[in-house]
TrEMBL record, chain A:
Superkingdom of this protein's organism: Eukaryota
Name used for this protein in its record: Small ribosomal subunit protein mS33
Cell compartment(s), UniProt: Mitochondrion
Organism this protein belongs to: Psilocybe cyanescens
Organism taxonomic ancestry: Eukaryota, Fungi, Dikarya, Basidiomycota, Agaricomycotina
Pfam families given in the database record: MRP-S33 (PF08293)
InterPro entries: Ribosomal_mS33 (IPR013219)
From TrEMBL, chain B:
Alphabetized Pfam families for the sequence: Ribosomal_S14 (PF00253)
Species for this entry: Psilocybe cyanescens
UniProt protein name: Glucocorticoid receptor-like (DNA-binding domain)
Family: Belongs to the universal ribosomal protein uS14 family.
MF annotations from Gene Ontology: structural constituent of ribosome
Gene Ontology annotations for the cellular component aspect, listed alphabetically: mitochondrial small ribosomal subunit
Keywords on record: Ribonucleoprotein, Ribosomal protein
Keyword Chaperone: no
Gene3D superfamilies per UniProt: 1.10.287.1480
PANTHER family: 30S RIBOSOMAL PROTEIN S14 (PTHR19836), SMALL RIBOSOMAL SUBUNIT PROTEIN US14M (PTHR19836:SF19)
Organism lineage: Eukaryota, Fungi, Dikarya, Basidiomycota, Agaricomycotina
InterPro entries xrefs: Ribosomal_uS14, Ribosomal_uS14_CS
Length: 107, 100
């Protein structure tokens, strides 16, 4: 039969064990929030998810002396002009509240 | 040019990285039961002031080819259709069409 060991002795044992093995002594099992400090930072891997894309318009803007042309952008602008000529272009921006069509009732 | 949803996701990713350390510090205080309830409550209120594009939960893995948000095969970061297209073109090393 095991001899009776008072709880205070067991507590002291745990305390000693913690000091020897360098673990934190937390008899009430309180949440210390340590897991938020221990976890690795996820930022770098989050930012690196999408592969780098070349920003063509930025390169053109930075090297004006090379006189490069963004074909896709030119084509888009050409399409916009063409659409406007046929009366299919986007409406002009409203200068004030009264011009705004958003709140006026349409039938 | 990535679509608007991908751009928004990029914004969320950069915001999450920029605010990660501050958020962790507040989380540590707010979830720490050894501190006083007042301090923890204040930390929680501070956490609530962070904007939408600072939380890592806002970040969603989207297809890097088409920008789709659903049906992503996470190992490749592609939506299931883009995965098929690329695999058939032989652009994904080690991926073969099954045949037996």
């Amino acid at each position: 039969m095991a001899a009776f060991v008072p709880p205070s002795r067991l507590q002291a044992l745990t305390k000693l064990r913690c000091s020897i093995f360098q673990t934190s002594y937390n008899p009430d099992s309180l949440r210390t929030g340590a897991k938020y400090l221990r976890a690795r930072l996820r930022g770098p891997s989050l930012v690196g998810y999408y592969p780098e894309r070349i920003n063509i318009s930025q390169i053109i803007r930075q090297n004006r002396e090379l006189e490069m042309v963004d074909d896709e952008e030119e084509e888009r602008l050409q399409d916009v002009i063409e659409r406007r000529r046929r009366g299919k272009g986007a409406p002009k921006k409203a200068k004030n509240k009264g011009e705004s069509r958003r709140l006026t009732k349409r039938r | 040019m990535p679509n608007a949803r991908v751009l928004r996701d990029m914004k969320a990713r950069h915001g999450a990285r920029a605010n990660e350390i501050a958020r962790r510090a507040y989380l540590f205080v707010a979830r720490n039961e050894t501190l006083s309830p007042q301090v923890r409550h204040h930390a929680q209120l501070q956490l609530n002031t962070f904007g939408r594009y600072t939380r890592p939960a806002t970040v969603k893995n989207r297809c890097y080819e088409s920008g789709k948000g659903r049906g992503i095969i996470s190992e490749f970061g592609l939506s299931r259709f883009q995965f098929r297209v690329k695999a058939l073109r032989g652009e994904l090393p080690g991926v073969n069409k099954a045949s037996w």
